[in-house]
Write a structure and sequence with these properties.
The complex is a heterodimer of chains A (269) and B (95).
Chain A: E1 3-9, H1 17-32, E2 36-40, E3 52-55, E4 62-66, E5 71-75, H2 83-86, E6 91-95, E7 99-100, E8 116-124, H3 132-135, E9 136-137, E10 142-143, E11 146-153, H4 156-170, H5 172-179, H6 188-199, E12 209-217, E13 222-225, E14 231-238, E15 241-248, E16 252-254, H7 257-266
Parallel strand pairs in A: 1-2, 1-6, 2-3, 8-12, 12-16
Antiparallel strand pairs in A: 4-5, 6-11, 7-16, 8-11, 9-10, 13-14, 14-15
Helix pairs in contact in A: 4-6
Chain B: H1 4-28, E1 30-33, E2 36-39, H2 42-49, E3 54-58, E4 64-68, H3 69-94
Antiparallel strand pairs in B: 1-2, 3-4
Classes of the chains: A alpha/beta (269), B alpha+beta (95).
Chain lengths: 269, 95
């Protein structure tokens, strides 16, 4: 039975997601010791950091704003449901390219069996934002599972969830109206959560969750690398006063893309 | 002389760092056994101490899994102590 990490990267609007993915793939190799597959729409991209590169067509895109980029950018986040058919592994951990692996905490997952599970909780590492803003969505306050980190074993149950995601994406305005959230932008987190709910008969408490909290660095904060490859300094402002903290050996989800690009430039893997 | 606001700010920063450390080591307590996912800690260790040689226990995914209590206990104890020691050492550096 094969096991590995999958990442989806599609460049656009001046953010080099492919470079971020390659850099993070090296982190995965170092900490988790599993192969990494890249799923991309770039027909020619090659990088030795990836054990497999799977080409796909570009899916639908939307637009989103990153505070550190300072402008709206194309966000090619559609078609994520295809990762089930595209992943070459029997057991796959799908992570966002900007989910920086800095520890071996996720390593035990690859020896476990669960049809499909995703991270349920996220927290703002700077504590600037209330946790409630992150972990429920829509006026219906539906619990949100995070597409940042999904783990599954190839089989009927996982396939059903991804097929449901495809259906939800194809009928997005309907689900936006049903769960009462903005129709723009398309959110994989919402699609995944609704798909998990459908696949579990809307019994939220029976949906398996990964026992990891996603530590988010918001795009209003700046992450910088230090001499230790797994130690990062996070600078942010609270009531117009500068604040800082360090993370060491903690997996973090760095939302600010310019931060990541600078880290990669300063500390290539 | 440290003002009250300076003291509060430094305690706030320290409390924040302490909380981040706790979350870091909680994640590191997870380990795999018999294709299930478990959290090393007092709860699991105490449960295993009252289990017969083989038992069926619920893992972190909510699945019932047949385990050999002594084997799982040894793994859990090793993981727990290893991470607690590391946590202790890192917390000391904060002081």
């Amino acid at each position: 039975m094969t096991a590995g990490v999958a990442m989806v990267a599609k460049n656009g609007s001046g953010i080099d997601y492919l470079a971020i993915a390659a850099w993070n793939a090296a982190n995965v190799h170092r900490h988790l010791g599993v192969p990494v597959a890249l799923i991309t729409d770039d027909a020619e991209y090659q990088h030795p950091a990836f054990d497999r590169i799977i080409r796909t067509t570009r899916g639908p895109s939307t637009r989103r704003h990153y505070a550190d980029v300072g402008t709206w950018v194309d966000w090619h986040n559609g078609g994520r449901h295809r990762v089930y058919e595209l992943s070459p592994w029997d057991r796959t951990l799908l992570i966002d390219v900007d989910y920086v692996v800095a520890s071996s905490a996720l390593k035990p997952l690859f020896e476990t069996r669960v049809p499909i599970a995703a991270a349920r909780w996220s927290t703002d590492i700077t504590e600037l934002n209330s946790i409630h803003a992150y972990n429920w969505f829509g006026a219906t306050k539906t619990p949100q599972w995070w597409a940042t980190m999904i783990y599954w074993e190839r089989g009927t149950q996982a396939e059903s969830v991804f097929q449901a995601m495809a259906m939800i994406e194809a009928n997005w305005p309907h689900y936006a109206a049903l769960y009462r959230f903005p129709v723009v932008p398309f959110r994989n987190d919402y699609a995944l959560s609704i798909a998990l709910s459908i696949a579990n008969g809307h019994h939220w408490d029976t949906i398996p969750s990964l026992p990891y909290t996603i530590a988010c660095v918001p795009d209003t904060a700046t992450a910088t690398a230090t001499r230790d490859p797994d130690r990062y300094r996070i600078d942010y402002e609270y009531r117009d006063r500068p604040r800082g903290l360090y993370t060491s050996g903690v997996d973090i989800h760095i939302m600010g893309k310019r931060s990541l690009e600078k880290i990669i430039e300063d500390h290539p893997r | 002389m440290t003002t009250l606001s300076e003291l509060t700010r430094s305690q706030l920063a320290r409390g924040h760092a302490k909380k981040l450390l706790a979350e870091k080591y909680q994640a590191k307590m997870n380990f795999a056994y018999a294709e299930g996912l478990w959290r090393a800690g007092p709860e699991l260790l105490v449960l295993l101490s009252v289990c017969p040689e083989t038992a069926v226990l619920e893992d972190l995914y909510g699945n019932p899994i047949r385990v050999t209590a002594a084997e799982l206990r040894a793994l859990a104890l090793e993981r727990w102590q290893e991470q607690m020691n590391a946590w202790h050492a890192e917390l000391d550096e904060l002081k």
